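User: C-alpha cells for L-type lectin-like domain-containing protein, please.
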Amino acid sequence: MKHSFMAPFEAVNDFTGMRVISDWELGGSAVAHRGFVRLTAEKQSQKGWIANRNSFEGGEWSLAMELRATGESQACRESSAALPPRCHAASRPPAAGERLQLGFIAAAHTSSPLAHPAPTLPSDLPPSARLTCTASAELSLPCGGRLGIFFDTFQNVDQQHHHKHPYIYAMVNDGTQHYAKQILPGAHDNSGCSFDFRYNEARQDVSVLNHTRVHVTYSASQRRLNLRLQQTSVGHDGEWYQCLEAKDVELPSSGYFAISSATGDLVDNHDIMHFVVRGTEGVDNDHQAWLDQQKALAAMQQSELDLRPAEAVQRDYARALAAHTASLKALSASVDKLQQQMEFQLASIQAGVAIARTTVDDKANELREVKERVEKESSSAKVISELKKDAADEMKQMKTEFKEALKSGGGMSTLSFYFLLLLIVALGGVGYNRYRKIMKSHLL
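Assistant: Done. Predicted C-alpha cells:
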C-alpha cells in the first residue's frame, strides 16, 4: 500500500495539527481531511498536489482513483459583462483554465520527486519544482513528466475544440519535449473523451456521496494505455465507459505517481477519496478481470440469497421491515420527545421572564411610593419646624411683655396674674389646633 491511499485519514501531525498520509507528500493548497484530500478549494488561482514518495517499479500497472469535482457555477462561456468575474477569460493567460491532472513522473531524474534535482538540471530549480510544474501541466524534461492525464472542465474562449467540456485526455512525453497546450485536443481519433464528471449545483444528482471512478492500466509489453470511467450517481447503471485506448505508448519502468489540480477564473472543489496502484504482471486483461470479479461477487451474493426457501426470504424481509419500522417509530418518538422538551423549556423560560417582569414592576411601584412618602414626610418636618419656631417667638414675646407689665405696674395683682395665665392657655390652644390641621392635611 505504499503507492496507494484511501479514506479515512486518521494520522495527525503533532506539531502542525494537520492530517498526514503515510508515504505521500502534500503541497500547495492541498489539505487532507478525514474523508478526502482536497487539492483545490472553490477559490481562484489555486494549485495543490499530492505525490508519492516511493517510486513504482514495473512496466505493468493498474490504478483506480475516485475523484469528486463540485462547484456552484454551471458553465463558463465567452466573456461578457453579464457574466460574473470568475467566468471572464479575456483578462487571464490562455492556459489558466481549471483542470485536474494525474501524472507519472520518471524516476531516472531523481531519487524522489521531492528531492533536490540532479546536477545536470538547472541549479536554480527548487526541490518542489517537479511537482509545481506538474500542477501547471508543464510536462517538460526538468519535471521528468512522462504521462499526464488531464481532467479539463474549462473551455478557453481563445481556442477551438472538436469536443465539449468537461473533457478528459492523455498526453505522453518522451522526456525531451516541453509542454505545449493542445490547440485542438480531440481532433485526433481516440485522444480523449467528453465526460461530465463535474457536479455543479444545478445538477439534480449533486451530492457529497456521488463521485467519478477512474481506472487506468498500462502494459509495457503491449505498449498500450487504457482509460475508462464510471459514475456513482443515481440514475447511472454502473457500467464502465471506455474513454481512450492509446497504442505505441512507451513509459519508463519506474516512476512516481502524483495528482495535481489548478484553478483559474472558473473554480471548483477537487477532492480525491481513493487512489490504489497495483502491478498487473501475468494478468491478461485487468479491465475484464476486475469486471468479472465484480460480477462474480454480485452473482454469489444473489445465489446465496436465492438458495434460501421462499418462506425464509419472506420471513427475513418481514423481520427486516419490522425492525426498520420499529427504528423509525423510535426515532419519531425521540424527535417528538425532543420537541416537547424544547417547547417545555421555552414555555418555562417565557413564564420566568413574565414573572421577573411583574416582580420588577412591583418593585418599581414600591420604590415610587416610598419616594412620595419621603417627600411628604420631608414637607411635614418642615412645617413642624416652622411651628416650633413660631411658638418660641410667641413665648419670647409674651415674656417680654410680662416683664414690661411688671415694671410699669410696680407689681401684679392676683386678677392680673390669672388673666395673663388665661391668655397664655388660649394662645397655646390656638397654636395646637393649627398644628393638628396642618398635620392632618399633610399626613392623612
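User: Anything notable?

Assistant: The chain is about 35% helix and 25% strand.
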